[in-house]
Amino acid sequence: MSKILKVAIIGVGGISNTHIPGWNASGNAEIVAGCDIREDVLNNWGKEHKVTKLTTDPSELFSDPDIDIIDVCTPNMFHAPLSIGGLEGGKHVICEKPLAPTPEDVKNMIAARDQSGKLLMTAQHFRFQANSKAMKSEIDKGILGDIYHARSWMLRRWGAPTGTGFILKKNSGGGPCIDIGVHILDLTLWLMGNPPPIAVSGVSRAEIAHQKGAFTGGGKNEIPSEYDVEDFASAFIRFETGATLVIEISWLLHHRTTGEDMQMWLYGTKAGCHWPKCEFLWSNFEEKEYNEKTLTDFPEDLEEAHAQECIEFAQAIIDGAPSPVPPEQSLQVMQILDGIYRSQDAGREIRI
Ligand SMILES: NC(=O)c1ccc[n+]([C@@H]2O[C@H](COP(=O)([O-])OP(=O)(O)OC[C@H]3O[C@@H](n4cnc5c(N)ncnc54)[C@H](O)[C@@H]3O)[C@@H](O)[C@H]2O)c1
Q1: What is the residue-wise DSSP string for 36-65?
Q2: pTM score > 0.85 for this model?
Q3: Fewer CB under 10 Å: which end of the chain, C or N?
Q4: Overall number of domains in the chain
Q5: In this structure, is residue 326 part of a structural domain?
Q6: Span 69-123, pLDDT tens digits
Q7: Of the residues 73, 93, 106, which should be mutated to test ligand 1's pocket, given the most ligand atoms within 8 Å of the CB?
Q8: Domain range for residue 85?
């Protein structure tokens, strides 16, 4: 029987609840410890999940020889120090998105990963949906030809969070770019085959959040006055391959959507495709036909994607396989998002 990997979760708030079913369903892992700065929350969490190793000091987990995996689920600004602490303690680390709020932090995490020889993975759960995997395997067969352009967007009409972990730049590193742009951008780059980005022309602005009485969410909660991040961004990105991408990201936009409008088109020399519909379009020039197909023949999701990413991370460790979401790919994502902010400040295209 293979080893059961012992998992410690740091930051037992909202998103950690989506990881727990994955660790529980994985035959390769079990949760043995939890850490949070809020002791009362931590104690309740420990009772609920029958976890007794509880601490407010993460360094106790880094030096604990009975822990194999650190699962970082704290606000963004703690991702780098906690992940680096875990790697330096000889642990494998899975860390929530964004891997870190700046490219420099991500580079430091990669250096710590290299020193440790352990796996570091970003929790980009959209990659773990069955439809994403089916499209990735079809695209990797070369069906699109050369992908020369992509369009993607992740837009909410009323989905700005109000927590200080998200709306204060010092905690989050940015607004919707960092919070949700990271999802659609990671997925787009992954499906494109992660071409290296070379230049970004972008804008990031807060147009709605600061209006008098601006509200968000189903509860029409007032946007806190200390909100200091963007509410909208758009960008044009050039890649080393010559490919280009146009992306739009917002938490608050006068856009028709009930929850979240997250979509992507990839355009290649032989075909185009749409995520999440799994539609592929192409033309037969000899027969003068427009053709299309929709992928349907793939297995259903066995687990919810946040759970599936934990299962696949544990499996990669057991198999000695590479990280299912390599931090080098997250570095590209953060270089582009950071490039949007730098381009906004400079008022022109910037090189990466
Ligand atoms: N993948 C997704 O779809 C998704 C969705 C939501 C949030 N997230 C990410 O998850 C992370 C956490 O978001 P959340 O919604 O769970 O926030 P949350 O506020 O609900 O939970 C964060 C927890 O971390 C604790 N914490 C804060 N600083 C800490 C520290 N230094 N050490 C230990 N514990 C600390 C807080 O007390 C809290 O319990 C963020 O990085 C966010 O971007 C990802």
Answers
A1: -S-HHHHHHHHHHHT--EEES-HHHHHT-T
A2: yes
A3: N
A4: 2
A5: no
A6: 999 999 999 999 999 999 999 999 999 999 999 999 999 999 999 999 999 999 9
A7: 73
A8: 5-125+311-321
